Amino acid sequence: MKNKKNTISKQPEADFIFKKKNYTWMFIGLAVIALGFILMSGGGSDDPDVWNPAIFNFQRIRLAPTLVLIGFGIEVYAILLNPDKKK
User: In this predicted model, what pLDDT tens digit does every residue of 19-64 receive, in sequence order?
Assistant: First the structure.
């Protein structure tokens, strides 16, 4: 009879891929994207026969899409961020 060692197999700890710093940046990015979409909304008219030139103002044409793109950039940064890296 062979001497069998009692081996207890340890399961690896379940760690999240992202840390708190990543999730913080992700929520900031989501907030910037949401703000961009909120600024894009509105400007319509209840009467389809009335032209409302407010749909072409700076807020809806330049600012809101820029905020959405910046928000997506923040999301990419949050995914690529390595919180364990020391300076």
Answer: 999 999 999 999 999 999 999 997 777 788 888 787 889 999 999 9
Query: 0.85 cut: is pTM over it?
Result: no
Amino acid letter at 29? G
What b/e sequence results for 37-66 when a residue is b if at least 16 CB atoms lie within 10 Å of its CB, and e otherwise? eebbeeeeeeeeeeeeeeeeeeebeeebee
Name the phi and psi angles at 33, rounded to 5: -65, -45
3-state secondary structure string across the chain = CCCCCCCCCCCCCCCCCCCHHHHHHHHHHHHHHHHHHHHHCCCCCCCCCCCCHHHHCHHHHHHHHHHHHHHHHHHHHHHHCCCCCCC
Determine the Cα–Cα distance for residues 80 and 84; give it in Å rounded to an integer.
12
